[in-house]
Amino acid sequence: MPLALLALAIGAFGIGTTEFVIMGLLPQIAGDFGVSIPTGGLLVTGYALGVVVGAPLMTVLGTKVSRKKMLMLLMGLFVVGNLLSALAPTFALMLAGRIVTSLAHGAFFGIGAVVAAELVAPNRKAGAIATMFTGLTVANIVGVPLGTFIGQAVGWRITFGAVAALGVVGLLGIARLVPALPRAEGAHLRRELAAFRNTQVVLAMAMTVLGFGGVFAAVTYIAPMMTHVAGYSEGAVTWLLVLFGIGMFLGNLLGGRYADRRLMPMLFTTLGGLAVVLALFTLTAHDKILAAVTIVLIGALGFATVPPLQKRVLDQAHGAPTLASAVNIGAFNLGNALSAWLGGLVISAGLGYTAPNWVGALLAAAALVLALWSAALERHTGARAAATAPVADAAVAGAAATDAAEVDRSLATTARPGHA
Asked: Of the N and C termini of the chain, which has fewer Cβ atoms inside 10 Å?
């Protein structure tokens, strides 16, 4: 494994920690600023929307510099945002710090995925992308619980200060280990935008929104679901989230391993399995052991889609992958926001805390339908190309035969007496 992938994974670990640790520290932060919990929730919403906006914005701004330099600038922005959060004297400045941090999120993962894929052989690209995303999954196993513990023990500002320090480590690692990859030849905004005219790119991003939305439809409301339905204590929710993180870690490795071999079958299996497990969660949520097992499976199946979906976008947006890759990271967060909103609607309608699981199952099933459609379009395109190839080959062969015949006639004419 190239050491540069380790530097990218450290950056991903820091980003994953700062994104999700806010959920465990929200009561303390809201209390310190004297705002309600729903108002404090803007720190989560603002971050998600910042990722959606920042992913394409920062990537476009970075088209004039090398990818390594852009990754360093993004980690610098990440450090500044977390320091602002740690030192914010008012809630408004805290929110501003969260938004500044989020602007680096999508572009870092998008550009980082392109860089990771370029560091290895073509048949190992998905594995390299998965290695970078391992930092994000490990953050949910180690970073988030540890950050929550530190925040509750000595103050949430220390947590954000520590995350900023982690960002400095990631920045130095990128500066030292990532090779100075030049900008792609001919890379410019018009060419990057042209990738979005590819139906397969759009379908892959739609699969990202719906598939990952299915995961977070359930996970967003896991705390009230586990305490009110499964009967867990509030303190146990942290460990259930650790189980979810373990599932994410395992699923990410699985997706990276098999996406390089059989990408579309991998998507069919994981999206179909995710839809089934989410539907079953409406039943298993009533039992502590079954609920815990289901949470691991949701994390595993959900994150097993990440490497293949990201690689699918890179493959289909060949020649101009950077913006498409970053926008696909924004699509993950768009799925989070969409599913959280839909899950809240069904709970508000009085359908109970397990109702978001049905929402998630429907979203995952819709993503599976898009995956099947994408594969069908690809087969149709391949069949049409194969059908036209013999015609083209025959035309070339005919032209060659005609040219050969003319040469033979010319030689024969030249060889006859009187033409010497």
From this structure: C
